[in-house]
Automatic annotation (TrEMBL):
Keywords: Magnesium, Metal-binding, Transferase. It comes from Cellulomonas alba. Its cofactor is Mg(2+). The active site is at 31, 79 (proton acceptor). This is Isoprenyl transferase. NCBIfam families: PRK14829.1 (NF011404), uppS (TIGR00055). It holds the Pfam family Prenyltransf. Homodimer. Catalyzes the condensation of isopentenyl diphosphate (IPP) with allylic pyrophosphates generating different type of terpenoids.
Length: 258
């Protein structure tokens, strides 16, 4: 039996929200680590270190409130443009976080998945991602997708390339290519659409994260940098989500009473 996550130090408990109003899939952009560190006179890398505890606490909060899927933007295809020192740190840090935390995730019943491209990614990072996937494959409490060397446009381009090969080989007819087929060629085809898109540190953009899956996501932006975020921020975002009216392009007249 999975163990429940450790409680929040404050004793805070999740708000009572009916299950139908809890997002099934939350995508998280963990922004502001560098700015958090610089504001304290620390190297940017210390912000990334501090952000590890925030991710763990948010996953714990997701389990407590009933979120089934969390996708975390750990390293984007654009992050290679950062300084070589920061890239090296992030590669090693992602590898070591997986190694340090996979047993804890497994004890909570979390299934760890990986979305992203293999090229350029360190072999040691791929090894740890695959080992975490193997260890937690049978878990079902919550699925944590670590998006490492991931980009939304890259994911769609890779899917289009794979479909083009199938069409060229005569295994798919061009007129059979539709949204449902494209979705089958994404990195994690069984991942449900994003319901809640959460970003920290005050920036209000999606930054090429899950742009296919998040087409109809509700966006919530936090002012706090990622190292200052914990499960209580997630819960407040879920409360905001629960108040939203999701119409998926439809509309219903609501004439005012006279």
């Amino acid at each position: 039996m999975p163990q429940p996550p450790y409680p929040h130090p404050s004793g805070a408990r999740p708000p009572a929200i009916p299950k139908e109003f809890v997002p099934r899939h939350v995508a998280v952009v963990m922004d502001g680590n560098g700015r958090w560190a610089n504001a304290r006179g620390l190297p940017r890398t210390e912000g990334h270190r501090a952000g590890e505890a925030s991710l763990l606490d948010v996953v714990a909060g997701a389990i407590e409130i009933g979120v089934e899927y969390v996708s975390a933007y750990a390293f984007s295809t654009e992050n290679w443009a950062r300084s070589p020192d920061e890239v090296r740190f992030l590669m090693g840090f992602n590898r070591d976080v997986l190694r340090r935390r996979r047993d804890l995730m497994n004890s909570w019943g979390v299934r760890v998945r990986w979305a992203g491209r293999r090229p350029r990614l360190w072999r040691s990072v791929i090894s740890e991602l695959e080992e975490a996937e193997r260890l937690t494959a049978g878990n079902s409490t919550c699925t944590l997708t670590m998006c490492v060397n991931y980009g939304g446009r890259a994911e769609i381009a890779d899917a289009a390339q794979a479909i083009a090969r199938e069409v060229a080989a005569g295994r798919i007819k061009p007129d059979k290519v539709n949204e449902k087929l494209v979705a089958k060629y994404l990195d994690e085809p069984d991942l449900p659409d994003v319901d809640l898109f959460l970003r920290s540190s005050g920036e209000q953009r999606t930054s090429n994260f899950m742009i296919w899956q998040a087409a109809y996501a509700e966006l919530v932006f936090l002012d706090e940098p990622w190292p200052d975020v914990d499960r209580r921020h997630l819960w407040r975002a879920v409360e905001e989500y629960a108040r939203r009216d999701r119409r998926y392009g439809g509309a219903v007249d609501q004439p005012s009473g006279e």
